[in-house]
Amino acid sequence: MSLLLTVSRMLATALTGLYAGGVLFVVIAPSLARMPGAAYVTYWQALNADYGRAMPPFLLTCIGATIVASLLSWQRGWPAFAACTAALLLLVATVALTLAGMEPLNRIANGWDPAQPPAGWHEIRQRWLDLHLLRAVLALAAFACLITAQGLDHDMTRTDLSSERNVPRNAEP
């Protein structure tokens, strides 16, 4: 396996795993959905500020590494290429979901007064949590695809190496 493929796939897998784990935490933290309005709005606004700064370069790096891994996986065979490409499409889907569905809700929440959330704030929170659950599923699926690509490529490399050992060598006279 080429060094660039190894590095790009490892980077893509590590970053996608961190992303998937981060978004999964919100799903498995039921206390967030039970927080009272003032506390939740304060939390939401702080998270929006942090994620707004950190996620664009993080996800662009993740997607860039996955693009490189996907392109280089083509030479390793269809299964590894398909798994990397599926991961790439799933990551792009998480970004599209975030920008189209979640960011508008974040902008609304950023305008709220935490001391007095508007009537119906919990409905917007629930819509955001529903979209976030979908984003977590997509991110976890992307992570699983990258792990699968590595496993498929590893199996292929092992098969290639074992078949090379079984090839009879021409004896010299």
Automatic annotation (TrEMBL):
Protein name (database record)? DUF1772 domain-containing protein
Q: Which domain of life is it from?
A: Bacteria
- Keywords tagged on the record: Membrane, Transmembrane, Transmembrane helix
**Which Pfam family, giving just one, matches this sequence?**
Anthrone_oxy
**Transmembrane domains' residue ranges:** 12-33, 54-74, 80-100, 133-152
UniProt entry tagged with the keyword Transcription: no
